[in-house]
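Fold it.
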Amino acid sequence: MTIYTKRFFLCISLLALVVGPVSSLLSAQEKQKPTIWEERAAERLKLLISKQQMAISQAQPTKSSVVLKKRQQKRQLKPKNKGRILVFWRCEGFIHTSIPSANFALQEMSRKGKLFSVDLADNYDVFTKKNLKRYDAILFNNTTHLKIPEEKQRKAILDFVSGGNGIIGIHAASDNFYEWEAASELIGGQFNGHPWGGGGTWAFKLDDPDHILNNAFGGKGFWHMDEIYQYKPSKFQGEDNLRILLSLDMSKPEVNARLTDPKQEKSNSAYGKGPRDVPVSWIREYGKGRLFYTNLGHREETYTNETIMQHVFDGILYALGNLKADATPTASAGPMRAALAPEKESE
């Protein structure tokens, strides 16, 4: 054996001594990776610092946008007892770091507006017929892959909404109920990728500029940085069942290009070639109840945007039954002229 061969085997031996313990350490860390919801949430979600809380608080509205339009107020702002909302924020899939921001924004809406109260929950045992009698709406805050196995609980939720109460979904609320078709239908759409990633600034159009729940936008489309979903064609309830409020503005090349991006080929393959709409916010009636859903809310910064928070606030009041709004499905609502986003300013 040459000296070079001896050196080679010596290096291999030393490498084994180093790699062995590292490999064992990684294996141990892998075994210790949180598996239950409480541990995963504690690892993923961070407490808001005072600066973040202040920015979120300042963005929250105190009044419905209808109050600012006196001609509409008597006709569309319906007096009702203060509503109570069950805010559910559990995740079985991906955990959005914006959950604490959304929870705090809702608490601040409640504190400042005094039009509803909120209770935060992340345990499935809140979904009983008896407990839901305490509430006027359920809000799913960025929940993912929820699994509500008990038939009694499923029935309690559907009966709650169809009996005259509200259901509200923020962003990932459409990434749920893969084993419960009735609930995914209720929300209106089910996640099928997000070609418009959270690091991009995208153009949005108002499908219905005159709709009361679009008052916040002042009749104008806009640009906003957030992550936007598309929905499984077989699950999306479409214009025959939903009143579409906002969509991506496909007239802008920055948005339209994602439809043919090779990196998005897998998620786009279900839609075929050619133009298509990607709705972002909508409402619907469900029995005697009401749904408001918006896909906005992936990023923490969204909860510091006054305009979007006003849109969410108004949508919540609609779901509670405190704000009258036309939920006629878009396909039956007559012609509308969308308000497109302005041209993007060069950076």
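The two ends are 66 Å apart (CA to CA).
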